[in-house]
Hints:
The chain is α/β, with parallel strands linked by helices.
Amino acid sequence: MKKILIVEDDKDIARALSLRLKAAHYEVVMAHDCITGTSIGIKEEPDLIILDVSMPGGDGFTLASRLREHATTTPAPVLFVTASKSPDIRNRAFEAGAVGFFEKPFNAHEILDCIKRTLDPA
């Protein structure tokens, strides 16, 4: 079973996304800030990481960079979610190597499709 790390400070969003992912037969681990996200990411060795852009203890871009420095998380694709409406944030996400970018409120089906294409390419 593929493991997905969700790092999202909004616990309701994280919980809802976790339920959708578990229903789609993914294992889910969660963190609600960048510091915990770093330690859980290194310990759990996820197959994919979903990062909120703005969180306590740092931002998703910094966390993605930190996780890429560790052998256990370097290969994990990253998907960003954000409530920000900044026009350049999408470009920043893809420049950081994102496989997906979604603005809140996002469509859970679209995120699941992105994850399936990334983790289970046909």
